[in-house]
Specification:
heterodimer; A: mainly alpha; Arc Repressor Mutant, subunit A; B: mainly alpha; Butyryl-CoA Dehydrogenase, subunit A, domain 3; 8 helices; elongated
Chain lengths: 80, 174
């Protein structure tokens, strides 16, 4: 049986919001809880798939932003 | 006033650390690549202008995400639409080729990713925003709570609800 407490703990574990003691408690419980392990696997899959959807900042945009910063800085210098 | 070279170095460190996280957060909310890139540029230019007045540099990321959020809502307002009516229209642009093949086939992973993105795009903005700030921004409950202006326990409960929905959806195919 998958309790609300274990679900909550797994979520907090994935969010880096658990203490070391809680991590130990969680993994201890998971070792004897099939449903908990399934939920943990689903969370891993969800996290990985969401991460895979990330895009990189396009090179031309990077250049545009950094050039704007450099020219901003130049105009401040020439004003001073 | 700081030397200009020092300021640019300091900016570049913050820029490199948060550019991708911010872009993905913005893109996942607006669903529009061009506007998301404009927003990213505006946010970093504003950050550069305001760097000297930021007392606690360790909180630069909170300033960046909060400013990005304001820009996103400004974009929504300019379109004269309610934020929760926006869908990720350019969803294909978000979906990249899948590389991991350990547990699932490439086809399954692609399908899972499409389901997740579709499901997220159909949720209202209040529901999905904590999830996006957590997954793309890597922010803590407390930071998300501050940026959105809701209580920490609400952040947690919205995150759980979104995950429950997504897990329920993907469990049908895995």
């Amino acid at each position: 049986m998958l309790s609300e407490k274990i679900i909550e703990l797994i979520n907090r574990y994935f969010d880096n919001e658990t203490s070391k003691e809680e991590d130990m408690y969680l993994f201890n419980r998971l070792s004897s809880n099939e449903e908990g392990r399934e939920y943990f696997k689903s969370m891993t899959l969800l996290r990985e798939t969401t991460k895979q959807s990330e895009v990189e900042v396009p090179q031309n945009l990077e250049e545009q932003i950094l050039n704007s910063i450099v020219s901003k800085q130049r105009s401040v210098k020439s004003y001073l | 006033m700081k030397k200009s070279s020092e300021k640019i170095i300091e900016f570049t460190i913050v820029y490199n650390r948060y550019k991708k996280r911010l872009l993905n957060y913005v893109l996942s909310l607006t669903g529009n690549k061009m506007h998301s890139e404009d927003i990213l540029q505006n946010v970093f230019l504003k950050y550069f202008d305001n760097m000297d007045s930021l007392h606690d540099k360790s909180k630069s990321h909170i300033w960046l995400f909060k400013t990005a959020r304001n820009e996103i809502y400004g974009y929504f307002r300019s379109k004269r639409s309610k934020a929760d009516q926006f869908n990720t229209q350019n969803i294909d642009e978000i979906i990249e080729p899948v590389e991991g093949k350990d547990l699932y086939t490439e086809y399954e992973l692609r399908e899972i990713k499409e389901i997740i993105m579709k499901e997220l795009s159909e949720m209202n903005i209040e529901q999905r925003e904590p999830y996006l700030l957590k997954e793309y921004g890597g922010l803590t409950y407390r930071e998300i709570s501050f940026i959105i202006g809701i209580e920490e326990k609400t952040v947690k409960s919205r995150l759980y609800k979104v995950r429950q929905k997504l897990i329920k959806k993907i469990s049908k195919i895995v």
